[in-house]
Amino acid sequence: MVRSDARENRERILAAAREAFAEDGATSMNQVAQRAAVGAGTLYRNFPTREALVLAVYQDEVERIVGTVPGLLAETAPLEALRLWTADLVEAMRRKHGLGDALDPTAHQAITQQTYGPVLAAITEILDAGKNDGSIRTDADPGDFLHLTGALWRAAPGPGDRSPRMLALILDGLRA
Question: For the chain, which domains are there?
């Protein structure tokens, strides 16, 4: 069993690394430790390599996003849940781009393959809820939807961000 202070240190490190890597993919381990207000020993005990830290941040972000699906479906209609979830996914994918810069191509491909299944399952859960209540067309495919979202995160963020309009078009196409 992990002590509560050790768990808190790990969470603080992950939060600091998430922010730091989003700002600059070249952030050093020492910069992460300083930002998390932990010593280098604590950082390296939790994450022996920079790559291990980057992979943990990436995995943590995917688990967070996937974990929001049941709550969204409990609180909103499936199409709105899909819109909210996808907007969150797009922001995470934009942040992930900075994380991707911090990984070598082999590690980036491995984590992408590792997280594809859980993300696809989350999309499937939302689409199935909409198919069941009649709000989403029965031929909606989770893999197709995921590929379409790739265009959303590539749209430039900021005042000219086209991703909300693009997402609205995608969701309109899913309506039953």
Answer: 1-48 (1.10.10.60), 50-174 (1.10.357.10)
